[in-house]
Amino acid sequence: MLFAVVDIETTGGYASQNGITEISIQIHDGNRIIESFESLVRPDHAIPPYIEALTGISNDLVSTAPKFESLAGKIYELLHDKVFVAHNVNFDFSFIRHQLEESGYKLQCKKLCTVRLSRKIFPGFPSYSLGKLCLSLNIELNNRHRAGGDAAATAVLLGLLLRADQQGYISQSLNKASKEQAIPPNLSGSAIERLPENPGVYYFKDQKGKVLYIGKAKNLKKRVCSHFTGNNSGKQRQEFLKNIYDIDFEICGTELMAFILEATEIKRLWPENNRAMKRFEQKYSLFSYTDQRGYIRLGVDKFKKQGPSLYNFNSLSEGHSLLRMLIKEHFLCERLCFIQKNRLACTGHEEGKCSGACIGKESAAAYNVRVKYAIRQLEDMLPTFAVIDQGRTEDEQSCLWVEKGQFYGMGYISAYTDVNNAALLKSTLSPLPSNDYILNLILSYTAANPGKKFNVEFSP
Q1: Predicted pLDDT at 179
Q2: Interhelix angle for 235-242 vs 89-102, to 10°?
Q3: Which of the two residues, 373 and 420, has the higher pLDDT score?
Q4: pLDDT category of residue 117 using cuts at 50, 70 and 90
Q5: N or C end of the chain: which has fewer CB within 10 A?
Q6: Average pLDDT, whole number, for the chain?
Q7: What pLDDT sits at residue 178?
């Protein structure tokens, strides 16, 4: 088996918007280096000053170097039938694979990460950066932060790892079914192994324990592993993977509960990598207030977090449709409900469908009686029900509670709990914030699974 030990220097930290400035490939047969290749590379991007200070590679130095595409054929021949080895392998591999694809070559080969292998085979060191690891293992490291020096040291490290691997970690990593090399460099394999195959919510955390990302899953292990596959070489993904140090999770009884918990936790913690859920907000609401003349006014306007609302909508047309229904059934005034604005008397008054509140012909007291009936009808339209489904174990059931059209909370109950005892059922649940996104999830689920829905009579 032949290994290609690789190190590169680049203009930045992610492949899609940066270039390679230097590459070194050391072909290792398991005992020694049998072939070497090294070259400066002229990138399509300027080298930032801080990179130049770190590596010593300047724009002037690479100005006459070959571009990657002229080296691509040679690089591909050296790599395609070898095991690709690097310290933090996914960084080097992502750049080289991206550049080869841009040049018309598709690189597919097995990978080994000397960071991950060193943690397993040489446990207990204070740091596994290449410089600190070489110091701990007495590996000579010359010309640090240059491709040739770092690749040569990594090749020596590979030889030590091959000789010290009594547990067969290297062969396990090279196993076709192994996902080891796809895991981010700072995340332990045990963090993946302990993930269950249940529905739930997972939390990616950084080195300090801060939550970077929250996701939901039907199968926690499968979903988490899917984050580490694919060919996305963009900055966001590369930074995201590099900063993952740990994974927490919470098992849920059903996928629906995982959806709801995810939405709740994103709103609570606001992780920097969750974006779509943050943007979700209720858009419009039906509100009421009493004007200076004493008339209760109904109207649809943009949702206000601090203001009371009778009903929430995703669109303005949806809100107006409901309001027009209330106007028609309770003979309300279209002008006092803001359906008509530029008239003294509404058209409903002209047609005999409004008693003239708009022009003061009907008193506020008389008009308000019908408005209150309309609001009561609206409240009666809001359902109260429970969703009973499978739990996390065979001895429990999951329960979600919706009260008067608002999600109240969820939790787990005994398989022998009387689901008709509404007060007892509600008392066992954990209250959670409600919004239209969560309510729509529940309503869609009960529409598809009517047998899971239990309508209940409940007086708070």
Answers
A1: 60
A2: 160
A3: 373
A4: very high
A5: C
A6: 88
A7: 58
Tell me which of 435 and 250 has the higher pLDDT: 250
Q: Is the overall model pTM greater than 0.85, yes or no? A: no
pLDDT at residue 163, as a whole number: 95
Please say whether the beta carbons of 67 and 75 come within 8 A: no
Convert the pLDDT of each residue in 363-380 to its tens digit: 999 999 999 999 888 877
List pLDDT tens digits, range 266-283: 988 989 888 765 555 557
Torsion angle (degrees, nearest 10) of CA 226, 231, 232, 237: 50
